Fold each of these.
Amino acid sequence: MVGTPPRPQFCAWCGTPLAYAPHHHEPRFATLADEAQASGEDPPPLPESVEDVMRGDSYIGACPGCRVLSHVISHHARP
């Protein structure tokens, strides 16, 4: 069964139920490529399949139990 993974529901640190909200996320590989290009380097491109897996959905939530701000990225497996 392949589909969109469910939104996280619990704190990753203490397990308290947590209402995560969608959050904008720029994949780290994109940030690193931009930084390399700004310093004059030309990094090789990643395969599209790797970029697809690393993009994922991003969520953020503040845990009332342990008082930690959690940022979760839900990566998608290729079908």
Amino acid sequence: MIEQDIRDLERRVPDRRLDGLEADIWARLAVQEQARRRSVRLLALQVVLLGVALGASTLAGYRARPSNSPELSVFSTRMPLNASTLLTEDRP
């Protein structure tokens, strides 16, 4: 079966010129390789930017942490200007 198909293809005249076929293949491969390299560089840049953003947000969160307060609660009576302290008559 396959042998017959190969013989049929050998007898048939090519429907287009094959002179520049190899050069076209290498040119397409070069374009694909260039696109792959570009995407790898873009991925590396995204990873670096994500790392910088994560580091910056971690540093900002660390610096914005509350001072040495023993308790941090919405209902704490020891924190000034809390809703629970403003409702009572005895304000600090």
